[in-house]
Design a protein that fits this description.
The complex is a heterodimer of chains A (241) and B (580).
Chain A (H helix, E strand, L loop, with lengths): L28 E7 L8 H6 L1 E7 L3 H8 L4 H7 L2 E4 L2 E2 L13 E5 L4 H7 L23 E9 L1 H14 L1 E4 H18 E6 L2 E4 H11 L5 E8 L3 H5 L9
Parallel strand pairs in A: 1-10, 5-6
Antiparallel strand pairs in A: 1-8, 2-6, 3-4, 3-5, 7-10, 8-9
Chain B lengths: L2 E6 L7 E6 L8 H12 L13 E5 L13 E6 L6 E6 L3 H7 L2 E7 L8 E5 L4 E5 L8 H12 L4 E4 L2 H4 L7 E3 L8 E3 L4 H7 L2 E6 L12 H17 L1 H10 L4 H7 L21 H10 L3 E4 L10 E5 L5 E4 L3 H7 L8 H14 L3 H13 L8 H12 L4 H7 L2 H7 L7 E2 L2 E2 L9 H9 L14 H4 L13 H18 L6 H6 L1 H15 L5 H21 L12 H4 L13 H4 L7
Parallel strand pairs in B: 1-6, 7-12
Antiparallel strand pairs in B: 1-2, 3-4, 3-6, 4-5, 7-8, 9-10, 9-12, 10-11, 13-14, 14-15, 16-17
The chains are: A alpha+beta (241), B alpha+beta (580).
Organism (chain B): Pelovirga terrestris
InterPro entries (chain B): Ald_Fedxn_OxRdtase_dom2, Ald_Fedxn_OxRdtase_dom3, Ald_Fedxn_OxRdtase_N, Ald_Fedxn_OxRdtase_N_sf, OxRdtase_Ald_Fedxn_C, Tungsten_al_ferr_oxy-like_C, W-dependent_AOR
Keywords (chain B): 4Fe-4S, Iron, Iron-sulfur, Metal-binding, Oxidoreductase
């Protein structure tokens, strides 16, 4: 088993979703999956590849994480020590700007020379200067979509809470999630609520290809059968459905 | 560790042995010991597979003690892969056992006149060197199984597979882990071929009746060790990331950075990266009843390894490391963890370096031998060609450079004949400097993220200024050489990089054990001394400034997605060894 983070073993601060994210509904469907918390791992591949969230753009990375996603600043500073914005390592969280279509990847501290090199503002950051993020001259505000990728420790700690709040998936991604989960998914999925109507999981998965085209989008929220905080060791999201 | 065992395999009448006082080497270890002996005793212009080359084995300074993370073993020689000096190290049990037996080094020299194959058994009372031709061309897993029946489960084993006997330049030396699996390898540089040239199939260490090595100051040592372990456990990398995901935690991040060399260094992003990431690998290992957290030797606190089971839940191999997953994965266009794990097992069994083997296969793919992404083809090349010593297998088993020549490939990622590891130097220019200038050939561990900031090697460098790639690399190489000389696992680099008190604890451990006062300056001086000796050896072996270069395509071919080239100038590279 991957050891759960032991209290007091890390200097990191806890995640705390201190604000409710307002999620626009410019999607084709609204899906709520009622899942056994064991199925958290079914989302790991998806979280590594990236999930999309509608956000207000033109803000800094720290504003996005703190104000919009509700991740406590102390957690970001202490635990998310390696960040990439559009594939470029970020050193300054306040001057880096989220734009429509931005891809933000979050990771804990990493081993190896290159792991240390990628670290935010680290001693060896100069070694990857050629790819480092530099803020744009002008910033425009608005709304749009950002893709969040979660790796390693943040994947385990933030991932369950992020899908609890809701992420935008394509029909193709949702079908892959269900198919890869296989019998395990069927066993751990209590029911599904589709556009407000509840149905058994088996019925939903069977009908999914006819409900959604691969390119259509759904706002997918997960209700875990036990508080994810019990599994992740972090407090629950405020206002989680 | 007050003695050195010298074995002359070429003595008239059969191999001879002599035990000498360790002298200056009694308070040294690892790379310092192997490189100093090789530099002193091996003619730099000798043939690596000839009688004049020597194979030197040395445990770390604190191996065999109760000190944590002290189980690395170093092997040194003139490399058949690079033609220069080589130190290659591994985990596993042999370092601990060898140190408890009291040996600061074993030097194997000469070459038998006959074609007999030998094994060497070492216990507290005697050294027995015996002919055992029944072991000929056995691979590591069945070999160790056979030897265990004779020598038992309390011994630690170092061995070569068929690749070492065939003197392939990518051949490794296997070290058994706590479960007696030959899964830890001194991989780089063909050290297994040198052992094969000496016709030594296995070394068996049995420390029955021996105790832990005792420090000069027991109480201080215990206190320092406690602080050191605490520092390792509280750090996010060594206490959380590595235990949970192993070194393969790096796949996603290198891919995201556009620095993941894909399909023989053609792009920096592999579309199948998430399928073979450490996160995915750990989850699969747990689902199949394996382990995502496991130590490669007793006394390991970090536990960055794991157990990879097959689809039926049976042991297949130890958790492949990041560089292995990359070399057989993205480098070859393969995104299937089971294929990569099988290749890792085959490499360990046959006894070849996983980096060199994977890179050679990728170069062969570029040369049209098989297609990129051909999982079955890659397994066939290793199992049926390298493993059986066919002409094609011997080409591949002699490394990426040889493979490139054989198949007319003009994109061959090597420096000094050794394959580049899993980090594209165009993305992280500083690591390119280390690849180019290291005495070892392209080696990601030659300039590790050791605490240059704490050591103040070369003064402070502004972390956010691009100037000084060469200076950073130089400082890292000096510091890493010193850590390699302690025989400590390199993964202690992170807590000692970030936590000065953990670095102090390490120095206190060394000081309390040997009854001396060690400072950061002593560490730096040792690193410089060893690097200088290695550099001089290579110069005498014929290496010049023109060998401290990356292959030209890194300067001329922009790497997507960042579209950047390696821009450090040759004259800057030439400054690396100019230190006061």
């Amino acid at each position: 088993m991957i050891p759960e983070r032991k209290p007091g073993r890390s200097a990191g601060a806890p995640v705390f979703f201190n604000r409710k994210l307002t999620m626009p509904t410019a999607v084709d469907l609204q899906v709520q999956l009622n899942l056994d918390s064991e199925l958290i791992s079914a989302f790991y591949l998806l979280l590594q590849k990236g999930v999309r969230l509608p956000v207000a753009t033109g803000c800094s990375v720290i504003k996005l994480l703190n104000d919009q996603l509700g991740i406590a600043e102390a957690y970001v500073l202490n635990r998310i020590t390696t960040l990439f914005l559009d594939g470029k390592p970020v050193d300054d969280l306040t001057s880096s700007v989220i734009d429509n279509g931005s891809v933000l990847a979050l990771s804990a501290a990493l081993p190896g020379l290159v792991g240390s090199t990628m670290r935010r503002g680290g001693h060896l950051a100069a070694m990857r200067e050629a790819i480092s993020y530099h803020p744009p001259q002008a910033v425009t505000t608005g709304s749009g979509t950002v893709t969040i990728k979660l790796f390693n420790i943040p994947m385990k700690e933030i991932g369950p809470l992020l899908v609890e709040r809701g992420v935008v998936l394509t029909g193709s991604e949702l079908m892959t999630l269900v198919a890869d989960g296989g019998a395990r998914f069927q066993k751990g999925c209590d029911s599904v609520t589709l556009n407000g109507r509840s149905s058994p999981c088996a019925e939903f998965t069977e009908q999914l290809p006819t409900i959604m085209a691969p390119q259509q989008t759904a706002l997918v929220k997960v209700r875990w059968n036990e508080a994810v905080s019990q599994r992740t060791g972090v407090p629950p999201a405020e206002g989680a459905s | 560790m007050d003695k050195i065992l010298r074995i002359n395999m070429g003595a008239s009448g059969g191999p001879s042995q002599n035990i000498e006082e360790a002298g200056e080497f009694s308070a040294l270890g690892g790379r310092a010991t192997t490189s100093m002996i090789v530099a002193k005793e091996v003619p730099p212009d000798c043939h690596p597979l000839g009688a004049e080359n020597k194979l030197v084995i040395a445990p770390g300074m604190l191996s065999g003690t109760t000190g944590a993370m002290s189980g690395r073993i170093s092997v040194g020689c003139k490399s058949p892969l690079t033609g220069g000096i080589k130190e290659s190290n591994a985990g596993g049990q042999p370092a601990q056992v060898m140190a408890r037996l009291g040996y600061a080094a074993i030097i194997i020299e000469g070459k038998p006149a006959s074609d007999d194959l030998y094994k060497i058994h070492i216990d507290k009372d005697k050294v027995t060197i015996s002919v055992d031709n029944s072991l000929k061309l056995m691979d590591n897993y069945p070999l160790v199984e056979k030897l265990r029946k004779e020598y038992g489960d309390k011994a630690a084993y170092m061995s070569i597979g068929s690749a070492g006997e065939r003197k392939m330049a990518a051949a490794s030396i296997a070290c058994t882990d706590p479960e007696l699996r030959p899964s830890r390898h001194c991989g780089r540089g063909g050290v297994g071929a040198v052992m094969g040239a000496k016709q030594v199939k296995a070394i068996i260490f049995d420390d029955s009746g021996c105790t832990h090595r005792q420090p000069k100051n027991q109480e201080k040592f215990k206190a320092a060790n406690r602080a050191y372990v605490e520092g390792i456990r509280k750090h996010a990398v060594s206490g959380e990331g590595l235990p949970a995901y192993g070194t393969n935690i790096l796949t996603n991040v290198l891919n995201e950075a556009g620095g993941y060399p894909t399909r023989n260094f053609k792009t920096g992003f592999f579309e199948g990266g998430t399928k073979i990431s450490g996160e995915t690998q750990a989850e699969l290992e747990i689902q199949r009843g394996g382990l995502a957290t496991h130590g490669c030797h007793r006394g390991c606190v970090i536990q960055c390894s794991g157990i990879y089971n097959d689809k039926d839940g049976k042991f297949l191999t130890k958790q492949p490391e990041y560089e292995t997953v990359w070399s057989h994965g993205g480098h070859c266009g393969i995104d299937d963890l089971d294929t990569i794990a099988m290749l890792d097992y085959l490499d360990d069994n046959i006894g070849v370096d996983t980096i060199e083997m994977g890179v050679a296969i990728g170069v062969a793919m570029d040369g049209g031998v098989i297609e990129f992404g051909d999982s079955e083809g890659a397994i066939r090349l290793v199992r049926d060609e390298v493993g059986k010593g066919t002409p094609l297998g011997r080409i591949l088993g002699n490394g990426a450079e040889m493979t490139g020549k054989a198949f007319g490939v003009d994109r061959v990622p090597v420096v000094k004949g050794q394959a580049l590891p899993a980090y594209d130097p165009r993305t992280v220019q500083g690591i390119g400097v280390t690849y180019a200038t290291s005495t070892m050939g392209a080696d990601h561990t030659a300039g590790y993220a050791v605490a240059t900031n704490i050591l103040k090697v070369g003064g402070d460098v502004d972390p956010l200024k691009p100037e000084g790639q060469v200076e950073l690399s130089r400082n890292l190489q000096i510091a890493t050489t010193a850590i390699d000389s302690t025989g400590m696992c390199l993964f202690i680099a992170f807590p000692i990089l970030d936590q000065p008190e953990t670095f102090d604890a390490l120095l206190d451990m060394l000081g309390a054990f040997y009854g001396i006062k060690m400072t950061g300056d002593d560490v730096v001086a040792l690193g410089k001394k060893v690097l200088t000796l290695e550099r001089e050896f290579n110069q005498k072996a014929g290496f010049g400034a023109e060998d401290d270069r990356l292959p030209r395509f890194f300067k001329t071919e922009p790497l997507a997605p960042h579209n950047i080239t390696f821009t450090v100038k040759d004259e800057e590279l030439d400054e690396l060894y100019n230190w006061s």
